[in-house]
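DM from R.C. (forwarded with permission)

"hey, sorry to bug you on a friday — could you get me a structure for this? deadline for the figure draft is monday and I only need the backbone to look sensible"
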Amino acid sequence: MRCLRHPIPIGSQQARALEHYAQWFNDDDLFVVDIATRRQGLMVAPGNPKKIYDLTDLTRRDVKFINRASDSGTRFYWKVC
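My reply, with the result:
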């Protein structure tokens, strides 16, 4: 049994994440057991002065996006999905 440090998303992005992990597993050895879920969000300045409401707002020139640490599960999710 192996425990993966980074999460495997459930739903439309699950297949893409599993393709990433397949390089370390034989097809017969791989199965996914869902043990937890989490909710993701964005942190903004108090009062949300730049009016950020969804991910497309992060592409605006007046918005600065600071990504998570390079080894975090959230950053892995953004990269793979």
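R.C.: lifesaver. The CA atoms of residues 51 and 57 lie 8 Å apart.
me: no worries. The mean pLDDT is 79.
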